[in-house]
Amino acid sequence: MARYLVTGGAGYVGSHTVLALVQRGDEVVVIDDLRQGHRGAVAPGAELVVADVADRRQVAEVFAAWRFDAVFHFAALSLVAESMAQPLRYITENLSNTLTLAEAAVQAGCLRFVLSSTAALFGYPDSELMHEGSRLDPVSAYGESKLMAERGLDWADRVHGLRSASLRYFNAAGADPGGRLGEDHNPETHLIPLAIDAALGLGPALTVFGTDYDTPDGTCIRDYVHVTDLVDAHLRVLDVLGQGRSARYNVGNGNGYSVRQVIDEVSRVCGRPVPFRTGPRRPGDPPVLVASNALLREETGWRPRHSSLSEIVRTAWEWRVAHPRGYRGG
Ligand code: UDP
Questions:
Q1: Count of domains for the chain
Q2: Is the peptide bond before 187 cis (omega within 30 degrees of 0)?
Q3: Helices (H) and strands (E) in the chain, counts
Q4: What is the predicted ipTM?
Q5: Would you say the CB of residue 282 lies under 6 angstroms from ligand 1?
Q6: 195 lies in the same domain as 236
Q7: How many Å is the maximal CA-CA distance in the chain?
Q8: Which of 150, 219, 228, 320 is spaced 20 to 30 Å from 101 by Cα?
Q9: What is the pLDDT of residues 91-129, one digit of tens each?
Q10: Is 181 part of any domain?
């Protein structure tokens, strides 16, 4: 049995990871300030410490109270559009929280660290698929903040031997196929939950951000990866860290879907039209972001098993129908 520290373990991807760890018999301590996360999303059996990861004293207390085999760092500001309004806040918070946590881990002798990174650090694509070696040139402050965090971790590796895996998420989506967890952001800004809410009449009509991109139907193309597959990547990279090396992996299913295709799929799966109107482009959005996941496959045996668009939308839809008020509704 191993013990893990999970920051942001009450959030969307974090809570799904905590559930998977607890289910396989690992011990989990969650740090989450519950500003974005939900108490009800933390799997029974995990220890929840309500604290801000920026609080060095509380983080040090957690490291003093438990010995961890690895840290999973999910807690972060993560909205592209918000980062374009508050770039300095995004860069300061995401970078300093990652480095504070890495420092505390090093001091405690915990030398394995998994970072939630992002496809947003690539910026405008220089090839059809983004490879780990593709040009890093973020077009959003969010992407920049994660690029800086990755670089900070490189130094922690070189100097302190902190092995890290940076997982560059493409578009995390879907919900636990067992119906225990789902996606509940406040405010919600992500395409699939907003389209589902529009179809269900739980939210306003969707606005399509930009129809004049250089893509076949003029809307942005993204690579949607099921949260269960994303969690699987987190578990697999522990073996890479165990081999004593750091790595960076793209985590996407390798296929892109346009905003219009997503809207069509949500209508099909839900059996209801998605009311939408078209609007201007959203700052910070590159036209296309699709992953090459070859490296993750080769080095860890990972495969996207749940990432068809229909399964992503179906699981997200099922959770929302069962929890129209999200975690507030129990
Ligand atoms: N999008 C949209 N309307 C919305 C929310 C998102 O058209 O209300 C588009 C957005 O411009 C992007 C894609 O949907 O091209 C996915 O956006 P999301 O916010 O879900 O994830 P991101 O790509 O920002 O991580």
A1: 2
A2: yes
A3: 10, 14
A4: 0.99
A5: yes
A6: no
A7: 56
A8: 228
A9: 999 999 999 999 999 999 999 999 999 999 998 888 889
A10: no
